[in-house]
Design a protein that fits this description.
Layout (H helix, E strand, L loop, with lengths): L1 E6 L5 H6 L8 E9 L2 E2 L2 E10 L1 H19 L3 E7 L1 E4 L3 E9 L2 H18 L2 E7 L2 E2 L3 E2 L8 E9 L39 H7 L4 H4 L5 H10 L1 E5 L5 H11 L3 E5 L24 H12 L4 E5 L8 H6 L3 E4 L4 H14 L3 E7 L2 E7 L8 H4 L12 H4 L4 H19 L8 E6 L4 E6 L13 H4 L4 H7 E2 L4 H6 L3 E4 L3 H6 L8 E2 L2 H6 L10 E4 L4 H12 L5 E4 L2 H10 L1
Parallel strand pairs: 1-5, 12-13, 12-15, 13-14, 15-16, 20-24, 21-22, 21-23, 23-24
Antiparallel strand pairs: 2-7, 2-11, 3-4, 4-6, 4-8, 5-7, 8-9, 8-10, 16-17, 17-18, 18-19
């Protein structure tokens, strides 16, 4: 038996203890927290507790399971009161039984410590001269309570032991952080009207601006913004837009959090690794501002789903790290007449561009008629990045989005902003609508359904490079020299031509031969293969997933 529950009724420790009795257990420990009549110089008359129960129970059950696994106990239970409690009432009870007393004692201590730090419970202290208001209860095991730990040992060859620890644990106010956000959102739980009154979002600092005011705040409340990518750029974008009171945020990201993300995606925690970014981000948005309708879309943007998603929003913010998605968004937004804000990064540099088809402005294809191929320019994983760099550019994207929604002066307009954060040098490039792009025609080959089929024909999968060679392919490793030192090509017949040299002029390659390009992850080789195909080298292919995928298949 390992349970956690809330109770609106008084607790009976003797009855609760019976639920943990087991002939196989010789050790039993219980913790009791009682409401006391004073705290920090105030005379306390009573307490009120409230919890977001769906989330709290899930997190508490995790704690109970952790205690069983960590300490090897047989049974554990915890009951926490909610509602109004009088002085002397039992506020929380924890019990643990095990084969030996030490395991029971340590498990009980672990449960109460974890509950007080991780389970979302709020309290209000009532004083003779007022109340504390609803506050997060970080030390919720015994806030305003007299605590008792009983440690009873019933092994037949030892005498009964009983001890007390009188600790007055209490902390008012402060910041309360817990790790339970994966399981739910405070937005959906029942809240009493007093706490709602205390926790309503306050936009007064921005409403005092004459350009915002009540009218601007109403515009924000009715606006809908689609944020594509919840990584280094997306994190500051979505948090600043949520803080400003944007009515709906659509969060698109197909990736799961990785440890290497955290130095720049500081919204998340190490314990979130492996979870879907879009879901994590939506939960953080709701926690920051319950007024925001945060909708998570755990998917990759495609020509099939992009039009529907974009059409449901007023403004789009591109926070991706690949050119194919950027140009897809450009084409769809131009077609649907939606503003879209782009940012691209390379190491310490970045650029910002706002495309306003609703105002007849230039688009990405006015500058680059052909989409830059993914892999030609390194992303954060390949080129490296310092955490604050995407933070700066994401903040600028959020600012431009707010300018559009509020129709503020000083919008970026037809300029491409470029910034080097090492030197703090900035420059602006005036972008004009290209004569060859009078209607911002979409490149249909890249946006129509089935466009991914062309890529599939270029990418090939093999279990080994020997297998590829047996089918007539010549292996060309396009990685840099240092990469080959770290991981040699698993083929003695492979040629080494760095990607930059290959694209500068594919000397030595015959248009009539078959080549398999190889890199670390398959992105650069795909980009190079597509580029060489466009130059007439129809026999060039890319190893799907690169050497990393090849190594994984060899372990299967």
């Amino acid at each position: 038996m390992n349970t956690f529950r809330f109770s609106h009724e008084p607790l009976d420790p003797a009855e609760l203890a019976k639920s943990l009795r087991d002939p196989a257990c010789g050790g039993y420990t219980a913790f009791e927290g009682w409401v006391r009549n004073h705290n920090e110089g105030h005379n306390v008359t009573r307490l009120e507790y409230e919890a977001f129960e769906p989330l709290a129970i899930k997190e508490a059950e995790r704690i109970m399971a952790e205690a069983v696994e960590r300490f090897g106990i047989e049974h554990a239970a915890c009951v926490h009161r909610v509602g109004s409690l009088a002085i002397g009432d039992l506020a929380v009870w924890v019990g643990a039984s095990a084969r030996h007393r030490d395991e029971a004692f340590r498990a009980c201590r672990y449960i109460i410590d974890e509950v007080k730090h991780r389970v979302p419970i709020w309290k209000k202290e009532h004083y003779e001269n007022g109340d504390s208001g609803w506050v997060n209860c970080e030390r919720c095991a015994a806030p305003g309570a007299h605590t008792q730990i009983e440690h009873a040992h019933h092994e037949h060859d030892h005498p009964h032991e009983h001890g007390h620890s009188h600790a007055h644990e209490h902390q008012r106010g402060g910041s309360h952080r817990h790790h339970a956000h994966k399981h739910g959102s405070p937005q959906s739980g029942p809240l009493v009207h007093e706490r709602v009154a205390k926790l309503v979002p306050d936009y007064s600092r921005q409403m005092v601006l004459k350009e915002v005011g009540a009218t601007g705040q109403a515009k924000l409340r009715s606006s809908r913004v689609l944020v594509v990518g919840c990584g280094g750029l997306g994190v500051p974008v979505l948090m600043y837009l949520a803080g400003a009171g944007v009515g709906r945020l659509g969060l698109v990201d197909a990736d799961r959090l990785e440890p290497s993300n955290l130095h720049r995606q500081t919204l998340y925690a190490l314990g979130d690794v492996g979870e879907a970014k879009s879901v994590l981000a939506a939960e953080h948005v709701r926690a920051l501002n319950p007024d925001v309708d945060a909708r998570a879309y755990t998917l990759r943007l495609t020509p099939e789903n992009a039009p529907e998603l974009v059409s449901q929003h007023d403004v789009v913010v591109d926070c991706t790290d690949n050119f194919s998605t950027k140009f897809l968004l450009n084409d769809v937004c131009v077609r649907l007449n939606k503003p879209v804000i782009f940012s691209s990064l390379y190491q310490y540099e970045g650029q910002l561009q706002v495309v306003r088809p609703d105002r007849g402005g230039p688009c990405l294809r006015c500058v680059w008629p052909e989409a830059t191929r993914d892999g030609v320019v390194g992303n954060c994983a390949e080129a490296g990045v310092l955490g604050p760099v995407p933070g700066v550019f994401g903040s600028l994207q959020a600012l431009e989005a707010l300018k559009i929604v509020l129709d503020l002066p000083g919008q970026l307009g037809n300029d491409l902003l470029m910034m080097d954060l090492l030197t703090l040098g900035t420059s602006r490039l005036r972008v004009r609508r290209a004569a060859s792009c009078p209607d911002h025609a979409v490149n249909e080959a890249r946006t129509k359904p089935g466009a991914s089929a062309a890529v599939a024909k270029i990418e090939l999968t093999f279990d080994s490079l020997d297998e590829a060679e047996s089918q007539g392919f010549q292996i060309v490793d396009i990685r840099e020299a240092q990469e080959l030192i770290d991981l040699p090509t698993p083929s003695g017949n492979a040629r080494h031509i760095p990607m930059a040299d290959l694209l500068q002029g594919p000397s030595g390659l015959a248009a009539s031969e078959k080549y398999l390009l190889v890199c670390a992850s398959g992105k650069r080789s795909l980009a190079a293969a597509e580029e060489l195909r466009s130059r007439g080298f129809d026999g060039v292919y890319s190893l799907r997933g690169g050497l990393a995928a090849l190594a994984r298949r060899s372990l299967i």
